[in-house]
Specification:
Rossmann fold; six-stranded mixed sheet; 10 helices; 45% helix
């Protein structure tokens, strides 16, 4: 599962809600640091694909190869050519994963600019959250509109039937988490699945790009 979204949208906390009751021996979160000099010379997807799960495992990507679709482009960490080459390859890469039997989900947590500003102020005041803040968070907030443009491009070019984007309106964190869980559970067939317990997905919170859900 890939989790993308605006800064402060709640990616890490949503992942925490997902794996709270899962076996830690078979589930973990991946948040890759800045690529090393060696990794910068590799195929772009290479360091991410090393973290794919084995059979029976679940991996949560707290940001992913979609950095190249957003933050890398905003701040010049990649060239426009590298950005377009990413889009020339990403759908085929993801189709290979799905065709090989991997259950693959892409969640995007969306918040408005005002909510982002409020959450940044909350992190400034809260010593339990202030470690999350960096100078890049403030710069990203200033360039919020650029992120929106690139977000919409990402949905348009990489939302596919085999790997659709699930956009979660995350101003209300609890509703976003519940609906992310409901979406996942409603799309996987497993023993004892009870759709009445899952209770359906709120389409005011969840939008899917790349597949017709009507």
């Amino acid at each position: 599962m890939i989790f993308e979204g605006m800064d402060t949208a709640g990616k890490s906390s949503t992942i925490k809600a997902f794996n709270a009751y899962l076996n830690p021996r078979h589930t973990w979160s991946v948040a890759l640091p800045k690529p090393t000099e060696v990794e910068q010379g590799q195929w772009y997807f290479q360091r991410h694909l090393k973290k794919l799960p084995n059979p029976g495992e679940i991996v949560f990507f707290d940001r992913s190869w979609y950095n190249r679709a957003g933050i890398e482009m905003v701040f010049g960490f990649c060239t426009p050519r590298q950005h377009e080459e990413f889009y020339a390859q990403v759908n085929d890469v993801e189709k290979m994963l799905v065709d090989d039997g991997i259950l693959f989900y892409k969640f995007y947590l969306n918040i408005d600019k005002e909510t982002q500003a409020r959450r940044i102020r909350e992190r400034e005041r809260n010593p339990l959250k202030s470690w999350k803040l960096s100078e890049l968070d403030y710069k990203s907030h200033e360039r919020y509109d650029e992120y929106v443009t690139l977000r919409d491009k990402m949905f348009r070019l990489s939302g596919t039937p085999h790997a659709p984007w699930i956009r979660l309106e995350a101003v209300d964190k609890k509703r976003a988490r519940l609906n992310a869980l409901r979406h996942l559970l409603s799309t996987i067939d497993y023993p004892g699945r009870d759709m009445e317990q899952i209770m359906g997905v709120d389409r005011a919170i969840v939008q899917v790009y790349g597949v017709d859900i009507s």
